């Protein structure tokens, strides 16, 4: 039976006269109609959230955390259904390395783990100053209604971090998924009805217009946005009109530095995952690989073999694979153009490179590796967000750090070396919100995550991330 989808406002299912469909990235067939939220739906959702906030903001942390456990149980109950929907809309497939499991369920399992982590973690009151005359206690109070504006690459897990952060701190939340991947998020909010008071957790489907309305509405206290740098700048400018709190999680162009003493066996496997897991459609994917010149040829040879072995195109969505089609036509065309640009400029493509008739159907591109393209080309300068990876070489530590640090991005980075002193020294010099040592970039929901420079504004995850979902109020007690 064809699944149905609804906007969820005050726990009610709402259809719409206008719907849109998403193209299945594997088959290029149109999926299911999804109702577009109207301006009135949005107004109703804000009113319901504001009403719900009155009671919800007075609940205790323990009460809210107990409900996060229920949300986790509910997600687990619906894991199969949600994973299948997510696989269809995103092109994700079965993930081999974690047992036979839908790669899409990586999103759902991650969301369960986030719910459970925050069911045990929250902001606590803190004595910030004390002397003989005074004691100052900082306490954290909810902001009100949070608007979550989300991207398409990990639809559930990236929405859920905003949901759990909002809920545990006592806020209400309206989620707007990406119009490229609305289905799993909408179904998830639908199946979660009844767990939280009506109006606390709502979802509306829409694109840039709805996102823009959210950023302007005076009834929304904070926008948590994940997406491109260009949209992030628009969101921030718009939020300024009502002085909303704003968190921006934006694009990265992560450098990965491989030192001459790196354990090549492990490093090659890890760098391949960092670059090609979900076909590079990961904000913190390794996007520029800098390999020391003394091991360059051997590294490249091993990497090509590993990529050709582990990142093959498999059109069967139930087959075990970490490699997917591009999730949508827009991104498919962008990445094809980047590969075409490499060809036009005569760069050395050592594997992949095909951009036409790769398969009969679907937005597939083969994993593509480009050896030593110039530093100022499109592939190196900008985020590719797809399965094409430049492998550059270096000889001097200061020089590679300089090349790694970009003016227009600073999300993640990675360093591979057996010498942990050297690896840490390099990591501390890299201008990024997170640096991973001897592993590819994997955000940890217990650790603060945010980009510097154009890659973000503020951040989420861990206790520090929760601070952006609260106002801090200081209580000054006179002691005598
Ligand atoms: P996008 O900026 O195109 O869209 C993101 C969201 O913003 C969508 O929901 C979209 O409908 C909405 N939107 C579009 N215009 C808007 C406007 N004017 N006002 C308000 N909302 C608007 O990004 P995308 O293509 O969906 O996501 C991919 C990008 O996200 C990549 O660059 C990736 O690196 C980045 N990303 C970053 C992180 C991170 O944590 N830093 C995580 C995942 C993805």
TrEMBL record:
It holds the Pfam family Aldedh. Keywords: Coiled coil, Oxidoreductase. It catalyses: an aldehyde + NAD(+) + H2O = a carboxylate + NADH + 2 H(+). InterPro entries: Ald_DH/histidinol_DH (IPR016161), Ald_DH_C (IPR016163), Ald_DH_CS_CYS (IPR016160), Ald_DH_N (IPR016162), Aldehyde_DH_dom (IPR015590), LUC3-like (IPR044086). Belongs to the aldehyde dehydrogenase family. It is an enzyme of class 1 (oxidoreductase). Its EC number is 1.2.1.3. Residues 16-473 form the Aldehyde dehydrogenase domain. GO terms for molecular function: aldehyde dehydrogenase (NAD+) activity. This is aldehyde dehydrogenase (NAD(+)). It comes from Apodospora peruviana. Residues 61-88 form a coiled coil. CDD domains: ALDH_AldA-AAD23400 (cd07106). It comes from the Eukaryota.
């Amino acid at each position: 039976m064809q699944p149905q989808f609804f906007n969820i406002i005050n726990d009610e299912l709402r259809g719409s006269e206008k719907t849109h469909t998403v193209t299945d990235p594997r088959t290029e067939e149109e999926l299911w109609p999804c109702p577009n939220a109207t301006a009135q739906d949005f107004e109703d959702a804000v009113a319901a959230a504001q009403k719900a906030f009155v009671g919800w903001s007075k609940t205790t942390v323990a009460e809210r955390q107990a409900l996060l456990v229920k949300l986790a149980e509910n997600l687990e109950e619906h894991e199969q259904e949600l994973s299948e929907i997510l696989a269809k809309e995103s092109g994700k497939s079965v993930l081999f390395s974690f047992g036979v499991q839908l790669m899409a369920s990586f999103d759902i399992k991650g969301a369960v783990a986030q719910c459970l982590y925050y069911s045990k973690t929250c902001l606590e009151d803190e004595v910030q100053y004390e002397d003989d005359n005074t004691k100052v206690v900082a306490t954290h109070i909810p902001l009100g209604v949070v608007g979550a504006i989300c991207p398409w690459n990990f639809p559930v897990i990236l929405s859920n971090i905003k949901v759990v952060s909002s809920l545990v701190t006592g806020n209400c939340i309206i989620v707007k998924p990406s119009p490229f991947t609305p289905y799993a998020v909408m179904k998830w909010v639908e199946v979660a009805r009844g767990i939280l008071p009506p109006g606390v957790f709502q979802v509306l489907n829409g694109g840039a217009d709805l996102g823009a309305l959210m950023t302007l509405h005076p009834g929304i206290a904070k926008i948590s946005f994940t997406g491109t740098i260009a949209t992030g700048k628009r969101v921030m400018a718009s939020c300024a009109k009502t002085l909303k709190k704003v968190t921006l999680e934006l694009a990265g162009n992560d450098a990965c530095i491989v030192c001459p003493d790196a354990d090549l066996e492990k490093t090659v496997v890890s760098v391949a995952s960092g670059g090609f897991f979900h076909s590079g459609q990961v904000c913190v994917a390794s996007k520029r690989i800098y390999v020391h010149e003394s091991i360059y040829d051997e590294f490249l040879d091993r990497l090509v073999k590993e990529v050709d072995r582990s990142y093959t195109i498999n059109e069967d969505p139930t087959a075990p694979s970490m490699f997917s089609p591009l999730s949508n036509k827009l991104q498919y065309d962008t990445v094809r153009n980047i590969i075409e640009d490499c060809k036009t400029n005569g760069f050395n493509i050592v594997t992949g490179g095909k951009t036409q008739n790769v398969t009969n159907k679907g937005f597939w591109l083969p994993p593509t590796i480009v050896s030593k393209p110039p530093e100022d080309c499109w592939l190196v300068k900008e985020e590719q967000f797809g399965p094409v990876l430049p492998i550059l070489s270096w000889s001097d530590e200061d020089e590679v750090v300089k090349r790694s640090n970009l003016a227009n991005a600073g999300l993640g980075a990675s360093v591979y070396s057996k010498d942990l002193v050297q690896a840490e020294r390099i990591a501390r010099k890299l201008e990024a919100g997170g640096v991973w040592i001897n592993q590819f970039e994997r955000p940890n929901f217990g650790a603060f995550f945010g980009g510097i420079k154009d890659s973000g504004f503020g951040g989420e995850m861990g206790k520090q991330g929760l601070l952006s979902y609260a106002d801090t109020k200081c209580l000054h007690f006179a002691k005598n």
